[in-house]
Structure formats: C-alpha cells, structure tokens
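INFO worker-7 received task bundle
INFO bundle size: 2
INFO processing item 0
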Amino acid sequence: MTRLHLHLLSDSTGETLENIAKAAIAQFDNVETIRHFWPMVRSEVHLERILDEISQNPGLVLFTLANQPLRRKLENRCRALGLPVVAALDPVTDAMSNILGQETRNRTGRKYIMDEAYFARIDAIQFTIAHDDGVNWENWEEADIVLVAVSRASKTPTSIYLANRGYKTANIPIVPESPPPPSLFTLKHPLIVGLTTSAERLIQVRRNRLLSLNQMPETTYVDQEKVKEEVAYARRMFADNGWPVIDVTRRSIEETAAAIINIYNERLVAQAEG
C-alpha cells in the first residue's frame, strides 16, 4: 500500500477540484490517499499557513487559484520544496483560450457567482424535495424529469443528484397494490424514465433497510417471488407506455443520472428538429 498526501487548494468551494482528484485517484490501486482540503484560499496569510502544512506533509499539490501573485507564491514554494504542483484547470482553459481567441478573465470563484443558473438550480432542488416519493402529483407537469421505479431502486438519491444539476425532478413509487395517479400517463412536458434493477439486488437493499430500522428482516417486502412480480409489473408498465428504461443494478447514482441527462438532451434535440 502506497501512501500519498494530496493537497487541494481552491479560491472557491473546491468542488470542481475535489471531483477531479476523486476521478484521478480512482485510476490507481493500493494507494492510501490522505487528502488535505483547503477551500477559499484568497489571502497570503491563509496561503502561508497552508504552505507550512504542506512542508510538514509533502506530497502532490493540486490547485485552482485565479489570483496570480498567490499562484506564483504557491508554485515557487512547492518547487523549492521539490514537490509536484499542478494547476488542475490550466490545460482545459488554455485549449479553450486558443480556440476562442480570448484571454481568460481570471475571476476568483467565478463559477459561483449567483447568476440566473444558480437560482434555477435552487429552484430545481426545492421542487425535487417537494415532489419526492409521489407527493404533490398535481404539479408533475412542471417537472423536467419524472423517475418511476419500485421501492428502494434509487429514485430519491438520483432525483436529488439531478436537482443539483438543475433539473426539476419528481419521483414516483410503483406499487402493484396501489397504482400511480392516472395523470402520470398523460404528462406532456416531463421526460419520464423507468428505473429497474435485479430482484436479487433489490432484496439485498431492502433487507439492509429493514435492519437499519430494527424491523423484521423477513416480510413480503423481501419475499423473492413477490419482489420478482413487483419488478416484472414495473417493467410491463414501462414497456406499455414506451418510457426509456435504465437498469441501475450495477450503476452508481452519478452514472444513472448521466444516462438520464443524455436521454433528456437527445429528446430536446429531437423536439427542436421536429
């Protein structure tokens, strides 16, 4: 097992930098990563404290700093310490600069300016929370995306992830004994997506859920035949209505959301061309 100290410095929340680091780390095996996260680095005093920590725990330094004096100070000190230092976004912004023929604006935390897109994202999160698990079905037509699935098939976490990407998302449970409101089948604006999973995986997730709630682990909720019937019922509903279906058995929430967004964008293009 190799140990790596990874220092992440950002002049904003650091969300982008963290995602880049996670994606890179995932490409390596047998590495114990000790992450030192430094968001909102906007002063020399703050940077000096961080540099002291870096010198005590040498490792790889990744940063997104727009302030040129702070950036130069960080790079110079890291080189003096013999440490690799990488400006994570430079290759992308340099390529865009060359193609667009424009210089970058170098504004600190620029992507977090509270613009129209920011408030749209807040709107989407509020809508999604208010329309979880079949609630407020009267407003489903206002959704961008509607997720339909049996219980414990990752409807809610996928909805919240999509909301954070700016998509108003409602989700609806499929229960054979209690069919969804008829309005679901007449929606025009939202993209309706069916989520499915294997019965075996569903039983495992449901058992864990029951145990976490200190409930009896053996009920019809996890009965193999009942669960198979439930999954088959949902799949028939998806097929009968021509809804796109995503199997989430081996997908992460992020992968499921990415697939849904692709379908959503393809639908927009088809509507525009039609």
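INFO item 0 finished
INFO processing item 1
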Amino acid sequence: MAKFNTPSLANSAPNTETAQWRDYLELTKPKVVAMLLLTAMVGMCLAVPSLPPAHAVILGLLGIGMQSAAAAVFNHVIDQRIDRQMQRTIHRPVAKGRVGTSQALAFGGLLMVAGFTLLWVLNALVAWLTFASLIGYAVVYTVWLKHATPQNIVIGGLAGAMPPLLGWVAVTGTLDPHALLLVMLIFTWTPPHFWALAIHREKDYAKAGVPMLPVTHGVEFTKTMILLYTLLLVVVGLLPWLAGMSGLIYLFGSLALNLGFAWYAWQLKFHDRKGLAWQTFKYSIWHVFGLFVALLADHAWRAIG
C-alpha cells in the first residue's frame, strides 16, 4: 500500500462566519438522506401486501431519517481535517468553521436521540438496527475503515445498504430474507457508484491521504473492479424477481437500468474519455433511484391486480 504524507494545516484554519440554518441542513446531507428514505419506504411497502400502517410509515421515516442525518453530522465532524484538504468538501460547514465542532456534535446527538426514541415507539428491533447502522457509518467506516483499507467502501457500504431492511422491520417488527435481497442490491451497487467518484477525485483523495482504490491500486484496476461489480449487479438485480417478490415491471426495469450501468462501466474501462467517470457516477445515482421506483411500481401494480 502506498504511503501518504499529510499536508500541514497551518494555512487552513477555520473561519468564524456565523452559522445559518442552511449550514445545519448541509450537515445532514439531505440529498443522501432523501435517497435513503426512498429505499426505506420501498422496504415498508414491500413488507405488506397492501399499504403499510400510516403510523409506522411516519414514525419509521422520521426516525430513520433523523438517525441517518445524525450519522452525516458526525461524519462532518470526524472528517473535518480531510475535508479541508479536498476540493469537493473544503466548503463544508464544520471544515470552514461556520459550525463549531461542539455545536455539530450537540446537533447530531439531538438528532440521534430523537430518531432512536421515535423508532423505539415502533419496536426495539428497528431502533437498535438503525442505531447499529449509524455506528457502522459514523464510527466503523469513517473513523477506521476509510483509513485502513482500499476495500473501505465495500465493507463500510453495508451500513448504507440497510435502510430497506430498516423500513421493512419498522412495519413488521421482524427480519425477512426478502428484505435482505433489497440490502444486497444497494450493497452491490455501492462500490461501483463510489469508485467512479473516487476516480474523478483521485488526486483529492491522494492529497488527503485516504487509501481509496484508485490511489492504492491505480485507476485502471479500479475501472476493472467497477465493471465486475456492475456485471454482478445485473445478476443480483434478478434475485427479487427469481424469489417471487417482484414481477415483470421490476424485471425489465432492473435489467434496463443495470445493463445501462454496465455499459457505462464498459465504456469507462475500454473507451474512457474526459469526464466519463463523473458521468458514470451521476448515472449511478439515477440508477439506484430508478431501481427502487421500479420495485415500488411493480408492487403497486401487483397489489391492484
């Protein structure tokens, strides 16, 4: 593994701008949380034949959302040194000093406790599973895995793949193998999604001393891994249909989306051009959104039928 030299932070001291509500909102990574809540909502809907109970949906989404937002806030606090060294993150509120570390920790703690309490009202299992996901992302991944191994996003991706399972458990109070298939979809999707971004920001990660795969094993090796994971995703994407939890709407939708992702990965590996890694990353966001919308649409159609 390559050795990294950490640049001096002498010239990157935080400023003293007054925090605004937008800064606290940015700390929660609202776009990421919104996507997580979509996948949790799909898990809720697929857990029952018809509509899930309204109280489970409201309390479940609020609780999962608050815990996810808390994990994002803690990520800002823990990664502030790295954030000051990367162009993509240099303007984050804690890195810039618009929100102090103690204020961010208090905000994150409040969200964590409130989210856990709401989920506890539903059932203890979803409360503890969601808390475990928070710890997995904010501590295990951010503090340890991110700096320990180029497989950080593969192992740590499990925490981000949990929301469909959490939504399922919020409604039923039990674990189910079908919910784990939804986790597998996101778990397989996460590495090629993030590695495309890592290729685009490879110099940033190298500068910050973060051992992302393009930094430690090279861009070409990373492209190969992206292609292999997208091909695996095509196979994993068939499992909900093969298991009987979804029908033809999902089958054809997932095949189109997954093959599209594989096509981007093929182009990235064998016909790369400027900006293609970034385009692949952006496609992957719409891809996972479309995948779970297809699951939801398929479930609704089957419920009507």
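INFO item 1 finished
INFO post-check item 1: Residues 1-16 have pLDDT under 50 and may be disordered.
INFO post-check item 1: The two ends are 55 Å apart (CA to CA).
INFO worker-7 idle
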